[in-house]
Amino acid sequence: MPWSNQNGGGGWQGGGGGNRGPWGQGPSGGGKQPPDLDELIRRGQDKFREILPGGTGGTRGPILILSLVVLVALVASSVFRVDTDQQGIVLRFGKFVRIEQPGLHFKFPYPIEYVATPTVTRVNRTDIGTAEAGRPSTEEGLMLTGDENIVDISFSVFWRIKDATDYLFKVEEPDRAVKAMAESAMREVVGQSNIQVLLTTGRGEVQAKVRDLMQQALDAYGAGIVITEVKLQKVDPPAAVIDAFRDVQAARADQERLQYEANTYANTVVPKARGAASQITQSADAYRQQIVAEAEGEAKRFLLIYNEYKKAKDVTRRRIYIETMEDVLGGINKVIVDPSRSNGVMPYLPLSGLKPIPPAALSGSSDASGSSSTGSGTEGRP
């Protein structure tokens, strides 16, 4: 037994010199000895110093600390957070396994599982043809139009992530892919357009076409990106010819202004001329209708008279004669000659030549004749 001494004595029995109890005290007496508490505390402190770094108690201390560090690292790598504008894409040994929504989540520690957190709600911006800091615009903005002119274009593309898994795994370097597709789509649209359209009224149509072409290409590649807007920043001729181009534009503006003035004058004069022509036409038509109606009336009147004439020729002839003479002699001074008279002249009283007597004169003459008669009567009385 380990607790037996070497002299064959059993247990903690006393014996010769040098026998000690199991706790390392001095020679045991005739019975069991209790352990020394101070000695136990001292030995525990020695063991603890061996565990601490820099202790002299062997390699167990560093191993324990390293184990604690590894444990903390494993726990920390098993917990991850997804922000409100992100999605958590969990990969297990490089293979996609699930999508985590915003919040705190757990996973297997790295390298078993890895989490990518792309921002899916932020609108990203890609500029093409814009001037960099301290440098002029790059050649990527110089494009050939459909009428063989060169324009210097700068524009911006606004996009966001539509599908996080496609964005991460389907296309390598999606930012560069967006820029390359934007430049390609813009060159295609500009190559089908005239420079005048690009400089004036065609910007909105160009932006819509470029957005549609980019979206079709990105969907075909499965990039997981949606284009929200394409905005033209600048559409100008190249700097080397911009002065001459402005002169041409000014001359073209003058031409258009003169054309507008001529059209305005034509729109003023032509309607007036058309109105006058219409008025003359309507007057002539009315005169024609009047003359035709009068002629038709005279013809009908003649036919009616002719029919009556055939029935009684003498009466009708005399009536026509009288009516004709009435019309001829009605407005002139006349002298009537009667062959039966001795002198051949019929007395004629021109009633139309007599002037009407005023009512006042008639009343005065009546008073005068009354008074006269009254006076006469008075004088004639006896």
Plain-language structure description:
The chain is an alpha+beta fold. The chain is 50% helix and 14% strand. The chain is built from nine helices and nine strands. The chain has helices at residues 37-51, 60-78, 164-169, 174-191, 195-199, 203-221, 242-311, 313-329, 359-380, and strands spanning 79-82, 88-92, 95-100, 103-106, 113-116, 124-128, 142-144, 150-161, 225-236. Helix 4 packs across helix 6 (203-221) and helix 7 crosses helix 8. The longest helix is centred in the C-terminal third of the chain and has 70 residues, at 242-311. The chain is rod-shaped, with a radius of gyration of 66 Å.
Order of helices and strands: HHEEEEEEEEHHHHEHHH
Dominant shape: rod-shaped
Q: Determine the mean pLDDT.
A: 75
Task: Report the β-strand fraction as a percent range.
Answer: 5-15%
Total of DSSP H or I helical runs spanning 4+ residues: 9
Number of strand segments: 9
Features:
382 residues, alpha+beta, four-stranded antiparallel β-sheet, three-stranded antiparallel β-sheet, 9 helices, disordered N terminus
Structure described in brief:
The protein has 382 residues and is α+β, with helices and mostly antiparallel strands.
Write the topology of this structure.
Elements: H1 37-51, H2 60-78, E1 79-82, E2 88-92, E3 95-100, E4 103-106, E5 113-116, E6 124-128, E7 142-144, E8 150-161, H3 164-169, H4 174-191, H5 195-199, H6 203-221, E9 225-236, H7 242-311, H8 313-329, H9 359-380
Antiparallel strand pairs: 1-4, 2-3, 2-5, 6-8, 7-8, 8-9
Helix pairs in contact: 4-6, 7-8
